[in-house]
Amino acid sequence: MSLFSAQPPTQQSTQPSSFGSAFGSTQQNQPFSSAGAATTNTPNSSGNAAGTPASAAAAPFAPAFPKNGVAAPALPAQITPDASSTRILKDLLDSAHNLPKLHHGSIGPISLPLSELRKETLQLRKNEKHGGNHTKAHYLLSKSGVNASDFEAELDALPRPQGGEAGAENTGQNYARDVETSAEREDIENYLGAKKDETVLSAIEQSLVSASRDFDRFINLSVAIDWKVRKDNLKRQLGIPVRTKITSEELAKSFTWNKSLPGASRVLAPLALSKTAANSTRHVSRDKFESNARVVYKLNESRLENRPFPLCLSFADLCKTSADSKSKQMGEIWRILADLSDEKLATVNQEQLFFESYQGAQPEKTLRKQVVKHSKLALELQFFNYMDEIYTKDDQKPPEFQPATNINKVSYFIHKVITKNNDSKLMERTLNYNGVPIWALVFYLMRSGLYAEAVDLTQANEEAFNKFDKNFPIYMSHFFKLGCFDLPSELHERISSDYSQSLQYLNEDAATFDPYKYAVYKIIGKCDLVKKNLPAALNLSIEDWLWFHLLILNEFGSTAASDLLYENYRLESLQKKVVSSGPARFNASSNHPVYAKTLVMLGLYELAVQYVYENINECDAVHLAIALSYYGLLKSSKSTSDDLIVVDSNDAYQVNFSRLLGSYTRTFKISDPKVAAQYLILICLSKGGHNAEESVKCHDALRELILISREFGLLLGDLNPDTGDKVPGILEHQRALINLPDIKKFYSQITERSAQRCEEEGRAFDALRLYQLCQEYDTVVSLLNKFLSEILSMTELDKPLLTGATYRTPEGGMQPVETSENNLILLARKLKGIFERNSFISGQITPKEKEINEYLLPMVDIRDRFVKKDWQGALDGIKNLGLVPIVDTDDFIEVRRAAEALNGYDVKLVKVIPSVLMIVMTSIAQINHNASTKKFGMGGQERGELDKLKTIAKNCMVYAGMIQYRMPRETYSLLINLEALL
């Protein structure tokens, strides 16, 4: 045994004492002495480390000499008692590195609380064996003259108490047993307390872990972060040079919310405004707004009845009332689309007429040909009307231009306009036959769409064409027969040969160059398409240029297409040419802009919507998009961004149709929610009208409108205040238009989900009304029970639930402040009466919710009695309610049965149990106080009643003790204090 371990624990010290310094060797220095002796490697070093108990006890008071008389090595100076403690600790730490290291990786740290450690130590003490024969103690006492056996005999002779633990064999054993029993009792309490703490902490830990996991999942799903941009920005802030320059816009876009999640994207929000867009395009007059809204409403009603509706013609009529250039251009656009869809002659519903041709898996060439044909006809009709107007206005026309035939009108136009506005020598350069410019007349007849007259003219004047043009009447006749698109293959070869011989290699400035003949051959024969321009001498307008390019397209002919790519001219090529030129060229005249019309004529409908939105008017762009979507001519985007137009992977333009409508309705979604609903219904027109993604967007938009406007009666329906029956709203009436023909699906997707959103946002009255509108009556009662439970459990007991306050109306009458419109308790009472009178509604409510409601609503009256200090009335009400045991006998079985029954209670009832117990105990305490402070004391009967009330209070406390973990701790403490008052 070492010297250090031989000392009593109470004499150990961690600091040098005056006692140690006086004797030159302290108790704490013995280990160092031993260690120093051990390092000398002497043969007797092991003997110095052990000895008899006596020598071990005497060692602290004597110099540390070994038995062989050799003095022990002196203590090093740095670890003498006079050395500083810091130096000693440092040397100890250094020497500790040389100690063998034990690896106990499998042994965990001690994490038991103090109560558990105490329990473990008691268990170890209990397992220790105590011998009954203390021989050494007998010897020690006998030296002092004490006979232990006599003491034992005298103790046994003492009288013993009867029964219980007092009859133990001896006092020592009795005491030990008492200590053991007390320890066991404390062990049970400690165990229960530890288990409770462990359960609470475990629940808290699980809740935190779950919340953290849910938050991380929500962030991962909802937020998109560009870490490269964030990293470069952080480097720049820290002064670290970065190569890339980060703009504020890029930094803002590096953190975005994922709008693809349901409910994450707001449809009724403004679109991102382009830099080129003007704010004036957002303004619209009230008359124009209402006129367009009426057309949209009629469109939806026609779709509901599956009958045709002249949508474009209706919008075109609205443009006639305005004389500005923008309205005029929009009117021309509407007429072009009306002609394309043939609205005047339609007898069946034309919804999605061109969807398969325009947006199908393989877009058809037929639609492109149809677009080109109608655009050409529109330009020709426009030119003819212009020419006819000039002819009609002049009352003094020369006789050679009469009567008013089409040929005379064109001849007069050449005489009146072309000859005067162009070079005087222009008519001299073209072929004149009997004073008539034949090629110019043919050109302008074609420009006016008078192809039949042009054929008649050429056939009647065959002798006018020389030997190089003798076949032209044949060319003209076959061109007209083939729809003015193409020539037969043999004629195409012949006209190409004639063109090469007479025109291809002539310079425009040559005296023999006829610009009109050149233009006619270009149009009819599609000749030399490497050069796609007409001579400058013709002085073409923008419409003339577009008409010419539409006619020389060789995409639709059966034989006109060439094997050489540069001699092919397709509609796509013309579209690219127009887009690359931009609006500046087509809007050269501020009084007659034609860029938007040009885009529509070429089938660039998405770009037309974008241009009208940014440069003409938002209202016109929205209705243009509606008309195009109605006919299937608008490609809608899947994107949920705020951009109006996007480009897909195939470089095709797409319009964010749902966001366009949502952005437009944002200005009147509250003032005119019915009108807004008519526009949002049209979101389902996209992608053929039955696309699931577009339907979801439409439903999201309608739910957003419902929640923002709160016009439930107008949009979803009204409720009869007496019977609870429902009158359908506008959305329910038109539910087939949003792909929800089944009423149950409509309730589920629109009304019920709106109610759930209101419930999440804490809008109790809105949620209850919406659940009623979707006929979820069981949910209505369940939600009412939930709200009643929260009110009864969380409000202060001394505050009234219903104040009964009133206010004076302007007419002088008095009205209650609290009504079923603003008070949940009154609403619950009203709905209970309505539901009970309606057998259909009552049959849809589960018995469980009915029972809970039967418990909670009477609690309001009980609380009212309690607040009015009707203590006995409150007790009687709770006793009749039967929610907690009101037992005036010592029948603990009934109390235990009630406590066990609590496990089957709904949480809505469990939440009100503490407040019910508080009412019971407070009422009994108040009755007891009133009785004990009566002036003339209590009678016998009154004293008996009071004893019964105290028994009730005792049973309530027993009940509360059994369920104390189901109620707040402070509530249980208050109950104990109330019991103490009794």
TrEMBL record:
Q: Which UniProt keywords apply?
A: Membrane, mRNA transport, Nuclear pore complex, Nucleus, Protein transport, Translocation, Transport
Q: Which organism is it from?
A: Metschnikowia bicuspidata var. bicuspidata NRRL YB-4993
Which InterPro entries does UniProt cross-reference here?
Nucleoporin_int_Nup93/Nic96
Q: What is this protein called?
A: Nuclear pore protein
User: Spans of biased composition, class Polar residues?
Assistant: 19-43
Q: Which GO terms describe its molecular function?
A: structural constituent of nuclear pore
GO cellular component terms attached to this protein's record: nuclear pore linkers; nuclear pore nuclear basket
Q: Where is this region: Disordered?
A: 1-55
Q: What is the lineage of its organism?
A: Eukaryota, Fungi, Dikarya, Ascomycota, Saccharomycotina
Phosphoprotein: is it a keyword of this entry? no
